[in-house]
Amino acid sequence: MSERPKIRLYVDHALQPGQTVDLSREQANYLFNVMRLGQGAELALFNGRDGEWRALVAVAGKRGGSLICDAQTALMMPPPDLWLLFAPIKKARTDFIVEKATEMGAARIIPVQTDFTNAERIRQDRLQAHAVEAAEQCGGTFVPTVDDLQRLDRLLSDWPLGRRLLFADEGDVGRSALLPDLVAGDPARLGQGAGWAILIGPEGGFSPAERDRLRALPFVTPIALGPRILRADTAAVAALTLFQASLGDWR
Amino acid sequence: MSERPKIRLYVDHALQPGQTVDLSREQANYLFNVMRLGQGAELALFNGRDGEWRALVAVAGKRGGSLICDAQTALMMPPPDLWLLFAPIKKARTDFIVEKATEMGAARIIPVQTDFTNAERIRQDRLQAHAVEAAEQCGGTFVPTVDDLQRLDRLLSDWPLGRRLLFADEGDVGRSALLPDLVAGDPARLGQGAGWAILIGPEGGFSPAERDRLRALPFVTPIALGPRILRADTAAVAALTLFQASLGDWR
Question: Which domains does chain A have, with CATH numbers?
Fold first, then answer.
């Protein structure tokens, strides 16, 4: 592997030696005006499938340009098969949750509408762009998919067979166990299967009906996040941390 | 214990049955204009020392007012003796780190100036106010102290005897171990002593000289935070999570 360049760009091209990559106007503006790269300069490319590649600037124009792909600088490292479900809140905190979930290695991010969620719609394209930017920053080779807003009740009704849902119930501080202890106590149940998901509630918590339903579902495991009530963005990072450190790719 | 009211206010008074608490102009504005409480309404008070108390509005004025303290609704729960050291970055992310450190149960927050930190000064009063607000929100009974900006090199030279420093080295992904594994491997060394501190680096990382010094100090233990490079605010929550789940008050 060659040394990894600092500037990283997500592109939607196949990456292989000698591959030409044409740039969009936004990409050219970022590389040549913001980052001030010139012809022959090095950068890193990734597409979410082929790992990370070094590329050289072939043509640097004001409104476009092209790169030539050179050598692979990092292997593809897909995250664990982990979804993050969260109820969108204020715009800035929703952006933060998408950014943090990407850094923390979620494979798919699903905004969900709960009984106490105010959001009727989200800007899926804007959130997906946040995930791309976070992947460029954190050195990852994977960009999680951000879904459009879904109703939690429907998602639970169509829940995929074998996938385990870890439910961070902020309204129930003290009654659930920590994920690492749950894993140690029953590794077969929690450590295998067809993937995982983490569900973080909205600022106002879940409704009593939602909480009852969640706790009764056979694929749901409630998890604890300590004695204080965490904001949704803090809870997302904390739950992802405990997952990655006990079942995920931090080991 | 009585039921805990939803609206919470940090005050700088002793709290005991029958205690009168006079309100500042800002506090009166928050309670009577923003939250629209009237005479006789209930709220929760805490002062960082005496747990949480229910209080009733005695006088609700436009520019002031007073409360009468009634009964204790939660015991005092001090966090572990844990400091968070971080290098201040952009204003919004610095605010977030203080908010998150409070929610996550740090006892003291110390902004540090490192070789690659741009900040020359911080607004200590503003950051302390953020910690108060976060404590009011998260249901805690404790407000961490936010120090003024200190130079990391001096802090390390005067390091208190017996306190262990957990060093999250983002520039060294993959070479350190996870805190829960370190604790399991050597509980006597990491689990006892005169408190702990977590050090999170600036966005640009530590300088080579700083990193060498940190790794050579006998009270420093490097800790890993997974294969991706985390932003400073994400790294702070992740490191605090692993601490609280393995050595702190999440157990």
Answer: 8-74 (2.40.240.20), 82-246 (3.40.1280.10)
- What is the secondary structure of B38-100 as a DSSP string? -TT-EEEEE-SSS-EEEEEEEEE-SS-EEEEEEEEEE---PPPSEEEEE---SHHHHHHHHHH
Name the stretches of chain B with pLDDT < 70.
1-3, 171-174
Q: Does B171 touch chain A (CB under 8 A)?
A: no
Which residues in A lie closer than 8 A to residue B241 (C-beta atoms)? Answer: 237-238, 241-242
Q: Cβ B226–A244 below 8 Å, yes or no?
A: yes
pLDDT of residue A2: 58
Which chain A residues touch B77 with a CB distance below 8 Å? Answer: 227
- The minimal CB distance from A231 to the residues B103, B229, B246 is found for B103
Distance in angstroms (rounded) separating the CA atoms of residues B168 and A235: 20
- d(CA A234, CA B140) in angstroms, rounded, equals 15
C-beta atoms of B231 and A140 within 8 A: no
Q: How far apart (Å, rounded) are the C-alpha atoms in residues B90 and A120? A: 32
Q: How far is A231 from chain B (nearest CA, A)?
A: 8
